[in-house]
Predict the 3D structure of the following.
Amino acid sequence: MNTILSLLRPRILSAINGLRPNNGKSNWPRFFMYGSLGIIFWTGTFIIFYRVLFYFQSVQDFGDILAMKLISMLIITFFTLLLFSNIINCLSHLYLSQDLPLLHSLPVSSKKIFFSRWIISTFDSSWMIVAFSFPVFLSYGLIYKAGIIFYVIFLAAIIFMCLITSALSGILVLFGAKILPAGRIRTILIILGVAMTLFLILVLRFTRPEQLVNPDSFASVVLYLNSMQTPDSPLLPTTWITDTIKAALNGEIKSCLFNIALTGTCALMLIFISNIIAQFAYFNGFSKSQTTPKRLFAPVKYKGYNWESLLNFLPRESKAFAVKEIRTFFRDSAQWPQLFLMAALIAIYIYNFSVLPLDNFPIKAVYLQNLFSFLNIGLAAFVLTAIVARFVFPAVSMEGEAFWIVQAAPVSIKRFLWIKFFLYYIPLIILAEVLVVVSNLLLRVSPFMMFLSTITIFCLVPAIVGMAVGLGAVYADFKSENPAQTVTSFGGLLFMILCFCLIASVVILEAGPVYYIFMADIRAQSISLLQLIWSVISFGFASFLCLLAFFYPIYLGEKKLGIR
């Protein structure tokens, strides 16, 4: 145990040093921002679930059934997220970290190295689920007037769930690293990405959530409730955890202790099995991961054609950087699972518009169609922000310690940043416009809303991409072990906040004028002079915000990188 604590000591000391002032600069502003956002999110989650459960309690006979169904869905969701997150973190901590060669050169067994890295991976993957699941179950405890025993049992159940998913992930990663050929450890990420994509699509579509707002499609209340059933096999750990929390809420002590004992012993058994497997398989898999990785797919070659010729219109130096950026992106197989997941989410996003039961609402369809179209501007922008945060914000940090080559190249920092911008801007503007146009066609909106949506997205995309490139340069981390994780840093959080503020401001500024123009069109009337002036000012200010977000962050990034 002393050896494992010694292996964990650098991580603990690193966390403690992160709380201290850095180069004389206080960390309190950063802590205040993170803490404030955490409290706001925590409070908002609690209020939402409290109000939902309070409403369920007002529904006689079926309120408790709905509340228990919600617990089942939450546990399955948490379990799935934890499993996928733990697999990714186990791969990184067990096979891809840069300090692993140093650790394996120490007089320490590979089993102990595995266990210490597994503990770090478990903490990194699970702390957020534990922290932000508490307001959900706090609302349950207050609504059902549960005692302190409920909260203790809930905390133990969540911790055991984290241990089960982490141990399962460790076993899967060990077998994957053992089975795959040498140098192909990163391909596990691609396989997992495809599997998770298919899983998300199947789970979402099999639940058919659009039918839940149409009671006419059910012959009885029993069928309606059965449609919300989740897997409840007695062999699944999620069933034990769900039954534990239900029993604790209802004061059934024997059932609660039995299920928590099942969960705990399962977690300990899986940890024991993973350590036994690691004793024989971990070092061999680590040795394989150190060899030169092979390409998963061989490059496609066309006689007489070279895709690089498409960039001949660029100056020679700029073309070299553009080709390097494109090649780097497609050679990094760790990016591909994210592409698969994004594609799945976008497909689901578009498909859901085609199944909206607009005719079953008491509001006229014409109002709902255009209302959803207007709200879709903000939703599409948020989807775009998530994609940009994952791929564009870390783009500058991905240069790593070889950034000195960029500084020594005959290309200015300004041109370097603009090359980054345009390489990501072109595919993202196409994606965003297709997303908006297709969803509007499915909603059958008016020509005015179609025009407004396309123009607004056309202005928001360069603003969001510009902020990602600029702030990614301002908060670039060229020494990061995994530059893709910079999106979770202070700079990444600031980027997400500013994007949220920009999108919300644009939507709010356009809401009033859009309402008056739309109602005037419906009633075949003309808008007044005051409303016209208000519309011009609102749209003008929204355009100014987009231009400011477009140019100013890149200027700040150029200034910051220029003094390095």
The two ends are 44 Å apart (CA to CA). The CA atoms of residues 6 and 251 lie 43 Å apart.
